[in-house]
Sequence to fold (503 residues):
Amino acid sequence: MQNRPFHWAVICGKEPNMASWKDTLERETDLHPTQQALLWHFSERVSFGKAISEQGVSLIVPTKDGQLLLSGSLDSSHTGMVQKYEVPMNHPIQQMLRSGKPYAGLMDWEEPTEAGITTESYYAYVYPIVDNGGKCIGACAFTNPVSEVYSSRYDEFMSIVSQTTFQGMLVPQLQQPELYEGISVLDGILFFEQDGTILYANRAAKKLGDIFGIDRRLQGTSIYSSTLKVGRIKKALEDRVGTIDEELYGDIALRQVMIPVVLGVKWKRGILVLQDKTELRKRDQELLVKNSVIKEVHHRVKNNLQSVAGLLRMQSRRSGSDDVKQALQDSIHRIESMALVHEIVSNFDEDYVALRSIIEELWRLLRQGLGSSEQHIEMDYTGDDIIMSSHKASYVSLVMNELFSNLFKHAFKGVTEGRVHVDVQESYTTDHRDMLHISIRDTGCGLPDDFESTRQRRLGLQIIDNLVQNELEGTITWTSDGTGTMVDIWIHKGEEYARLSSR
Fold:
C-alpha cells in the first residue's frame, strides 16, 4: 500500500523512561490522567512483547493536533525512540485508530537513516488499546520489515503470536512482575491452547525439542505429550496464575516460565518460556566450591594469626621490660587487626569485605584493650558502605589500627569523655577523582605544633605512611586546631571497590 510521504520528529531519546513518556503524553495529547495511566502501564511491557513475539513492538498514540506518537521500535533488532509523526489520514494506522478495529496487512512507514528519509514496508498486526469507556486511545503494533520475512506461513503464525502477546501485555499478572523479565532471543518460546495444542514455537524452542521429547513438528502437536514436567503448567493455566520453576532433566537445568493469557471468558492460552540454565548452574556450583575454599583459607589464616598473637601475649607476660611489653602489645594489636579481616571474610560468600564492619569491630576491640573503664570514648560512622577486596582491606585495617591506637595512647590520654567521627565517601573532586576518602575527626588534645608525620620516628606513624602511599596508592594529611585532630586519607579505588546504598 502506497501512502504519500509524512514527516517525523524525535520527541524523546533512546530507551525513554517513564517520566519522559508521561511528560510527552501530558504535553501532546488531550487524554485524561486515567487514560494516560493505562498507556504508561502498557508501555512498561513493550520490551516483554518484543522479546516474546520476536517482532518490532511499538505503542502508537494520537496527539491533539492529529499527529501520532510512536514509542518503541518497528524493527525487532533495534530499540526505538519516542517520535512524533505527521501521518496522512488515509494511512492504515489512522484508519484503525478511528475505527477501533484491529488491522493486519502491509504498512508503509518512513524511517530516518544516515542517507536521509526512506520508506520501509512492514507486515503489521495492530491492535487497539481501549479505555474502560470503550474509546480507542492508542494502538499496539507488531511489525517486521517485509525484507526480513522469508516464511510463506508467516501470516499464519505471526497473527497467533501477535494476538496472544498483545493480550498478555494488556492483561498482565500484576502481582508477578518477574514473569515478564529476563527473556532473551536464546530462550525457547511456545504458544499453546488450553488443551495443550502447540500453536507456535520459535527457533530456540525447536532446538530444545529433541532434548525434551517434543514432537519435531511442534505446531499441532500437544505439549502435554512431551517429557516436559507439565503438572504445574496445567495448574497455572487453570488458575490463571503464572509460575516459574526450575526442573532438572538429567544434566540439564531448565527454567520454565509459564504465563497464562486470558482471551475471553472461556478462551485461554499459555506462553511457555524455556530457559537453559545448565551452564549458569554449573558456574554457580563452581563459584560455590571456590567460595567455600576461600572461606576455609581465611578461617585458617585467622586461626594462625590468633595463635601468633597468643604466643606474643605469653612472651609479653614473661618479659620484665616495660618497653618490650609495650612493643609486643602493639604487635599483638596489629596481628589481631589483620586476623579481624580474615574472620569477617570467612563469614562471607566472596573474597570481599565491608569496610564499615572492619572499622566498627576494630574500634570495639581496641577500646576494650586500650581504653579504661572510666573513659567514655564513642565512635560514629557515616557515609558510604564500601565493599573492598580482603587484600586491600588488610592494609586499611592496619592503618585504622594505628590511628585508633594513637587516639587512646595520646589524643585521649587522661581524658574521660571524647568522640571520634569516621566518614567514608567516594571522592569526585578535581584533585582526587576516583578516590576513596576516609576522614577521621576526634575531640582529643590535638597535635604538637612541630608535628610532621614523615619525620616522626614512631613505628606506628611510619607504618601508616608506608601503607597509605605504597600499598593503597593514596595520600594522607594531618591537621589540628588545638581541640582535636583531623586525618584525611585518599585511597585509589581501582576496580575492586563497589558502593552499597548509604545508611
Summary: The domain at 7-170 is CATH 3.30.450.130 (Beta-Lactamase). Residues 181 and 456 are 59 Å apart (CA to CA). The chain is about 35% helix and 30% strand.
